[in-house]
Amino acid sequence: MTDQTLLVLPAGIPWVLAAVFALLDGRRRWVGRIAAVGLGVSFVSMVALALRVLRDGPVEVVAGNWPAGVGIVLRADALGVAFAVVSIGVMLVSLLYEVSLGMRSRTFPAVVLFMAAGLTGLFLTGDIFNFYVFFEVSVTAAYVLTSYRERDYQVRAAFIFAIVNLFGSVVFLIAAASLYHVTGSLEMQTVAERLGETSPNSAITIAVAIFVAFSLKLGLFPFHFWLPAVYVGSHPPVAAILSGALANIGSYGLLRFGGILPDQLALGTYAVLILGSASIIYGALQSISRSDVSEVLAYSAIGQAGYILLALGLGGPVGFSAAVIYAVVNSLNKALLFLVAGLRGPLVGAAFAVGALSVAGVPPAVGFIAKIAVFKAALAAGAGGGTAGAVGTVVFVTVIFVGGALSFVYMFQIYQRVFLAREPQGGHVEKPSPRATRALVGVLAALVLVFGLWPEPLLVLGEEAAAVLTGSPGDVSGGGDSP
């Protein structure tokens, strides 16, 4: 199979399937199953592409053989495929989960496929304008998903989600237009090369707009105000998709554009570090104060995103690698926990415990590896005498440990309330969830443990993605030295 075919398949399959399934009734079980098979094929092709990229380097193709700068540029590098694989994987598990429960809407399979198409294109594009187009496709599909089952509170959550994300989209569009104005191009490599020749004030303003847009998508403090209502009001597989796949737009955007705007990221390092630390502590404290499992997980998402921002602010190869590793692990954790929260029956509590230990950073779950990576980034920044310094290193290491300890507290609280202290009300015992759904979360929990016991593939992926951002040979979007 040629490199071009490997690159086009993961992006093309969801588009074709989404167009076909938009005409079918997704409530029919066979429709959902075929959609899941198609998304599974896309996922397998994405894994094959990731292996090819990690082995031989980036793959690039211009759609329709148009000249570069005119046609749609698809480009797969280690950073893009890392986010694409985990996002499509989370969506596949969530779709299978809903198929096994029985779908309530005819549009659900098609909407999931449209989002998969948008996310795949976003992670595999080398052009900022196409990034925005795929960005909008993904978010538009998310608007529909948040109102799934059409209950009053879900419709209200969908409205909040639409308004906030529309604002974020407008801010990013303004930033993209400004980049074109000051550089004369929207191709990521060219933009990164020409930004050094532009006015520092213009570049800083653009960087701030991009940071605000993606912080809104990720739900970082203080841009988090929309997130709890949306996550709490969403159906479990929808919440898993929003937190484990769609939120990766924010993580990926901050990392990708941090590589394109390295000097501006360096200037804003302290603000990034402060906001990351504030998100960690705020999310954890809010989670401890909540009793509903969905609310706990929603505020936990805010705190866990803070580790990604903290690693980004620490910068350098170690910091960028930690940010990628934590983003991937956080996607797995949130998908597992949101899916488990809607289930009952044997082994469900064990699966939740695995996810809880991973969020808290307790071995052998993979969350331990992610927190160690951020811990190493803080030490490396301090040892280099740069961003953190001795005092800063102590502060950030303390934040990491305190955040982990608070995570353990709120995860233990919710486990105790939901799985240990549950008593039948009026003699009624809840009916176990379908075996297929419990099997799915069991596989996801096993994966969290496997990567915790065998983290080498994840570490290699993080290192290769960091090399893209620090401008190693073969990179097109790294903008130079790290902070």
Quick summary:
With 483 residues, this protein is mostly helical.
Description of the molecule:
With 483 residues, the chain is mainly α. The protein has a domain at 268-421 and 435-468. 75% of the residues lie in helices and 2% in strands. It has 20 helices and 2 strands. The protein has helices at residues 3-21, 29-56, 78-101, 108-123, 128-146, 152-183, 188-194, 200-218, 227-232, 236-246, 248-260, 262-267, 269-288, 293-314, 316-341, 348-360, 367-383, 389-420, 435-453, 456-469; strands spanning 59-62, 73-76. It has a two-stranded antiparallel ribbon with strand order 1-2. Helix 2 packs parallel to helix 4 (108-123), helix 11 (248-260) runs parallel beside helix 14 and helix 13 (269-288) packs antiparallel against helix 14 (293-314). The radius of gyration is 21 Å and the shape is globular. The two termini are 39 Å apart. Mean pLDDT is 84; it is low at 424-428 and 473-483.
Overall pLDDT, averaged?
Answer: 84
Low-confidence stretches: 424-428, 473-483
| Multimeric status of the protein | single chain
State the distance separating the first and last CA atoms: 39 Å
Give the percentage of residues in beta strands: under 5%
Secondary structure category: mainly alpha
Architecture blueprint of SSEs:
Layout: H1 3-21, H2 29-56, E1 59-62, E2 73-76, H3 78-101, H4 108-123, H5 128-146, H6 152-183, H7 188-194, H8 200-218, H9 227-232, H10 236-246, H11 248-260, H12 262-267, H13 269-288, H14 293-314, H15 316-341, H16 348-360, H17 367-383, H18 389-420, H19 435-453, H20 456-469
Antiparallel strand pairs: 1-2
